[in-house]
Hints:
Elements: H1 5-14, H2 35-46, H3 50-60, H4 64-78, H5 92-129
Helix pairs in contact: 2-4
Amino acid sequence: MHAAPGARSWLRQAGPIRAKVTVTKEPQVAKTDTAERRLTAVPQASQLSEGELGAWLRTHGLHRAQLDEWRAAMLAGLAGRGASGVSTGGHGRRVKELERELRRKDRALAEAAALLMLKLKFLNQNRRSSRSCCGIGKSDPKCRHVNR
Length: 148
């Protein structure tokens, strides 16, 4: 889209545009919100009316969404779970993984114990029946040692 010839000539005549800009001091926003700041901000803001809350948010350099998020995280933490609904500290996935590994190792240990018991029973049974040198057993009529 091209500007009309009249507009071009007007821009040339006007020269550089100097706008008067007033700089107001912006509220100082912390780059990283500390837990202590969050812990104090939520109760303070909850005691204010809607009108007072807007002014308070501006002076503290916060947005309503941040405050709501912090409040939800605090309530979830007090309820014993993290903001995501998992156990606090983000350890829920690790705890579940460790519990799963523990169950697997318990099953493996129980299987090993059962195999050891079977082996011991087998060895004891063989010891009792192998008292004759042929290995068939004393009660077997074919055993030459029993029938001597």
